[in-house]
Amino acid sequence: MHHSTFSATFVALLAGTASAVVKDWGQCGGGQGWSGDSECASGSGCIKINDYYSQCQPGAAPANLQPEPQQPPLPASSTGTPTATGTPAGTGPGKELQSGYYWVRAVAAPNFHKYMQSNPLYATGPAVLGDYTTAGQFQVVDGQLVQLVSGPGEKPEKHLYGIVSEERFINNNSLSVTWSTTKNSYGKFAWNGDGLTWSVADITRPNAAAWYVCTGQQMYINLGNYLYQTPSGCADQTIHYYNDKHANN
């Protein structure tokens, strides 16, 4: 009898302390005096509205961000204006746009008319946004982001491919992009209008065109919400193709 009463009481206590998942748009932890549940449903984040009320919002990044992990190492020349150092994969197509390719640039502050390129120039290394005088030339072919690195008229053409890391970096919500002589195997690039997007089957992105530009002008795919909880040292960007004969600032 005593054993039965103890068991029932213990189960009741466990039930009373179990935490439920808060539905989208419901109140969650973080408000003063709130003693209810704090865990939001998968894909939602607990967003502070004021000192007394926080709400589970779908698609929002978690309010409690993890410490910033290290970024992938940058080459010694980590400014936004790369130079052709090391062992370039090619001599480069020059400052006149070659047939079938595009310039790719940002069109908003703080990187207005900064252009995608590799660092070092025309070589394997991080994707960066840099000066128009060293702008790279690109195309999307069968889901691959292709950079032309051979000289004008050189046959066969030489290319580098944009590689997306499966490892997550800044805020556990960013994927680095680097250049390689081998093709990318994680996700696919595409044009959406004139915007450059990236997608993969196992990740639902709120904005497929969202990018971060961080330390050393290094580029990352932003898996989270655009213009929301931007990491320190980074800027939100979308990047777009541009097909005038010459890059300009």
Radius of gyration: 24 Å
* Low-pLDDT stretches: 1-17, 61-70, 73-81
Q: For the terminal residues, how far apart are their CA atoms?
A: 84 Å
The count of β-strands is: 16
Largest sheet report: 9 strands, antiparallel
Task: Note the total helix count.
Answer: 1
Order of helices and strands: HEEEEEEEEEEEEEEEE
The overall pLDDT, averaged over residues, is 83
Indicate the overall shape. elongated
Number of domains: 2
Question: Care to describe what's here?
Answer:
It is built from 1 helix and 16 strands. A hairpin with a 5-residue loop joins strand 13 and strand 14 (219-222). The radius of gyration is 24 Å and the shape is elongated. The chain folds into 2 domains: 20-64; 103-242. The protein has one helix spanning 2-17, and strands spanning 27-28, 44-50, 53-58, 103-106, 115-118, 125-130, 137-141, 144-148, 159-168, 174-180, 188-192, 195-199, 211-213, 219-222, 235-237, 239-242. Strands 5, 6, 7, 8, 9, 10, 13, 14 and 15 form a 9-stranded antiparallel sheet that branches. A 3-stranded antiparallel sheet has the order 1-3-2, with no helix packed on it. The protein is 6% helix and 32% strand. The chain starts with a helix and ends in a 7-residue tail after the last strand. With 249 residues, the protein is mainly β. Residues 1-17, 61-70 and 73-81 have low confidence and may be disordered. Residues 76-90 have a biased composition (Low complexity). Residues 1-20 form the signal peptide. Keywords: Signal.
